[in-house]
Design brief:
Layout: E1 9-13, E2 18-22, E3 71-74, E4 88-91, E5 95-98, E6 102-108, H1 122-140, E7 147-154, E8 166-172, H2 177-193, H3 197-208, E9 212-215, E10 219-222, E11 233-237, H4 249-269, E12 276-281, E13 296-300, E14 303-306, E15 309-310, H5 316-319, E16 323-324, H6 328-337
Parallel strand pairs: 2-16
Antiparallel strand pairs: 1-2, 3-6, 4-5, 6-8, 7-8, 7-12, 9-10, 10-11, 11-13, 12-13, 14-15
Bound molecules: 5,6-dihydrouridine-5'-monophosphate and zinc ion.
C-alpha cells in the first residue's frame, strides 16, 4: 500500500492535467542556500514617496485623489492596450502570433499605506470584494474583453513594487493559459461525470478533512491534494458560483472573513509578513456561458520552512515537473493548528 505520508509519489492536478512529485522523506535536508531578508520595519500609514497613497503623484502627470476607502485607476504602465489593432502572423504552421487587446488596472485596498489583508477589518475587505465584483462586471460588458484576472503580489519576494495594499486587474481579449487549462479540464470532467469538478473535489476534501485549513458557512480553504508550493491554498465557495459578481451579499461577507483568516494564518506561520501571489479564477467573459466554471482563488506563497528560506522552482522543476518535500497534509495541519489570533 502506498503511504502518502512517507513514500515518494506523484499527484495529479485534475484542474491542469499536470503532475507534482512528492518526496516526504526529504523534509529534514539541510539548507545552505540563499537566505532571504525579511523586512520587519513597521510600515507607516502614509508615505510621501508612495505612488499609491492618497494625494500623491504617480508616474507621468497623474495625481491620486484624496480617496478614503478604495481607489481604482488605469495602470500607467499597462501590459495590455485597449487601442491595439487586430492582426496575426503565421509561418509554416509553427510561428504563430496574434495581436492582443486588453486593459490593466490597479486597485488600492485602503488609503492607509501600512494596511494588509491580514490587518484590515472584514468590513474594509468586503468593500474591496465589492470593487473586484464591480470591476469584473464592468470589464465583462466590454465586447473585446473575454477574461478578467484579478491578482495580488504581496511582498518584495513576489515582485510587489510597493507595500501599499493593492492588487492588479489584467483583462484580456483571450483566455490566458492557466484559466484555459482549468476550463478545458473542468469541461472534460463535466462531460465524463455530469458534475462540476470543484464541487465534487470539495466534497471529498470536506469528508477527509486533513487538508482543510479553515472554513465558514460559504467558503473553504484547503491545501489542495496536488499543491506545488509548500503552503499553497485553494479557496473555494462551498456552493457552485461562477464569478465574484455573482456572489450575494452574505457570501461576500463570508469571503471577506476567510480572506482575512487565511492572510492572518499565513502571517502567523513564520511570524512575519507572508509573501504570496494570490488571484481569482472566474468564468471567462467571452459570452460562452461557462456555467460549469467554479469560482476560486489560488494562493501561491514561495516560502519553504521559515520566513527566510524560499522554494526555488529550478532544475528538475523547470525541466521536468514540480516537486515538493513537506506533504500537503502536513502543511494544512500546520496552517490549521497555528490558529488565527
Ligand atoms: P505590483 O506591486 O504588483 O507591481 O503593482 C503595481 C502596479 O502599479 C504596476 O503594474 C503600476 C505598475 O505598472 N504603477 C502605476 O500604474 N503608476 C505608477 O505611478 C507606478 C506603478
Ligand atoms: Zn502608500
Amino acid at each position: 500500500m502506498l503511504d502518502l505520508s512517507k513514500d515518494v509519489h506523484r499527484r495529479f492536478n485534475p484542474l491542469t492535467g499536470e503532475w507534482v512529485l512528492v518526496s516526504p522523506h526529504r523534509t529534514e535536508r539541510p539548507w545552505q542556500g540563499q537566505i532571504e531578508k525579511i523586512s520587519q520595519e513597521t510600515v507607516p500609514d502614509y508615505d510621501p514617496d508612495c505612488y499609491l497613497c492618497p494625494g500623491n503623484a504617480r508616474a507621468g502627470s497623474e495625481r491620486n485623489p484624496d480617496y478614503a476607502e478604495t481607489f481604482v485607476f488605469d495602470n500607467d504602465y499597462p501590459a495590455l492596450l485597449s487601442t491595439n489593432v487586430p492582426g496575426c502572423v503565421e509561418k509554416g504552421g509553427l510561428l504563430t502570433a496574434s495581436a492582443e487587446r486588453g486593459i490593466c488596472r490597479v486597485v488600492c485596498f485602503s488609503p492607509r499605506h501600512g494596511e494588509t489583508l491580514s490587518k484590515m477589518s472584514t468590513n474594509d475587505i468586503r468593500r474591496v470584494i465589492d470593487v473586484w465584483a464591480q470591476q469584473y462586471g464592468e470589464l465583462a460588458e466590454l465586447p473585446f474583453i473575454n477574461s478578467v484576472q484579478i491578482f495580488e503580489n504581496r511582498g518584495a519576494m513576489m515582485g510587489a513594487s510597493n507595500p501599499h495594499p493593492h492588487c492588479q486587474i489584467w483583462a484580456n481579449s483571450t483566455v490566458p493559459n492557466e484559466l484555459r487549462k482549468e476550463l478545458s479540464h473542468s469541461a472534460d470532467h463535466l462531460d465524463r461525470t455530469g458534475g462540476c469538478l470543484l464541487c465534487s473535489y470539495l466534497e471529498i476534501e470536506e469528508q477527509e478533512g486533513e487538508r482543510v485549513v479553515c472554513q465558514n458557512g460559504h467558503f473553504s480553504a484547503v491545501v489542495p491534494f496536488w499543491a506545488v508550493w509548500p503552503f499553497e491554498i485553494l479557496l473555494l465557495p462551498r456552493h457552485h458560483v461562477t464569478d465574484l459578481n455573482a456572489l450575494k451579499s452574505e457570501w461576500r461577507n463570508a469571503l471577506a472573513e476567510i480572506l482575512r483568516e487565511v492572510a492572518r494564518r499565513y502571517d502567523r506561520l513564520f511570524d512575519a509578513p507572508f509573501p504570496y501571489t494570490m488571484g481569482f479564477h472566474q468564468r471567462p467573459t467571452d459570452g460562452g456561458g461557462h456555467d460549469s466554471f467554479h469560482l476560486h482563488a489560488h494562493f501561491y506563497p514561495p516560502l519553504l520552512r521559515s520566513a527566510t528560506v524560499r522554494k526555488f522552482m529550478v532544475g528538475f522543476e523547470m525541466l521536468a515537473m514540480p516537486q515538493r518535500d513537506i506533504t500537503p497534509e502536513t502543511a494544512a495541519a500546520r496552517l490549521r493548528e497555528i490558529g488565527e489570533e
